């Protein structure tokens, strides 16, 4: 007792406690817990993984000391982590190579070599929700039984953090992958619309094969939701679904995101990083917004799709990846090919099974079910009692053009559940563009938000109303915070709200 090591440990625990009292978001807390884990156990790395019940996967969301490993997933039930989770019991192994439960799949994903580990279940109100582990201690005697107790305590802090984050709905980062309501965001409402039903039938058939599927349709029609469904229905459901948005990144970044890079490939490449193709090995890779991919990358992608192998940026090792590719775009790809903006040969590669999802205005019969679904989803997320729409609000929803499709509908309903003070969502809880009458009910144009027949004063009023509502929604109805968001004095906000007829 009281040796220099204990004093050191104590110091580190106190430092952790200090960080925890000031940490605001769960990511910060989990990073602090994992950093402390690495230090306290003289470990090389530590990680935390959460169960995604819906996808039947274990998602590694937070890591420390594992280089630049991005969050990744493995099928549930595998390896030592699988054992810990299934049995709810901790495992210490000072030589994993001799532990028959050790699979090495995780090492293959991270590029890290595990020699020893201690892994404990992560609990939320007594329920196992994941696990936490420390990897490779440098101490001569390896991990001890006391380490197991200490890690259990640290996992307790992590578990409590997640519980709190979930309850406060503050979570925007960690575990985003796996909260059950996150899965609700990938749920598909059955459709009564013949076009949609036909599209789904094609997708179900295609799911059985390894065929490349190209999803077309306007923004917000549900292309990503459909891609995830294809994955879930496929034989690859137990493996990863990896999505990448081709429009959000510069060509150079996108290339290293897709194919990974070796250590030293470019300035700042301090570690080897696996690309999405490798992370999706055995699973599905979803290339979103493929129509926006830069021409030079189109050429590289085509080669990979043809040869099913590639090199990481800055490397010459050939990597094979068994990946099923799904792609989506809201562009008219055929027209893009004709205009020379998209490679014809890549288009034909992708165009094996092509499914076009209809815009929402062409499937109005689904509106009631979708409204109910989005209202339920939003109320669940904000822990409100379920809200319905009153007749007037429903009439507005049914007469609107929905240029932003299901995404716009989801946002409108979500906002309405926040604004709504009674037990039914009313017309006043919906944004003004829905109520603009005749013009708004015309088929959607590129910009339906500012009908041209409004006077300037009316248009301004609409903009003000929308803006104030947005600020109020963003601040959960807190007028002081909303005023700060709008950059005005709370008294002015209160006057403005009265002018606009807002409660
Ligand atoms: N079939 C569906 N049932 C319920 N919600 C859906 C469905 N399709 C899409 N959504 C919801 O609509 C929004 C937009 O879907 P998304 O797949 O991102 O569209 P896209 O990729 O076409 O832009 C998301 O909030 C999603 O949850
Ligand atoms: Mg999308």
Please give a structural write-up.
This protein is an alpha/beta fold and about 500 residues long. The protein has helices at about 5-20, 25-40, 80-85, 105-110, 145-170, 180-185, 195-205, 225-235, 250-260, 275-280, 295-305, 335-340, 345-350, 365-380, 390-400, 405-420, 430-435, 440, 455-475, 480-485, 490-500, and strands spanning about 45-50, 55-65, 70-75, 90-95, 115-125, 125-135, 215, 240-245, 260, 275, 285-290, 310, 320, 325-330, 355, 390, 425. The strands form five sheets. Strands 3-2-1-6-5-4 form a six-stranded antiparallel sheet, sandwiched between helices. It has a five-stranded parallel sheet with strand order 8-11-14-7-15. It has a two-stranded antiparallel ribbon with strand order 9-10. Strand 12 (about 310) and strand 13 form a beta hairpin. The structure holds adenosine-5'-diphosphate (ADP) and magnesium ion. The site of magnesium ion has 3 residues, from helix 8.
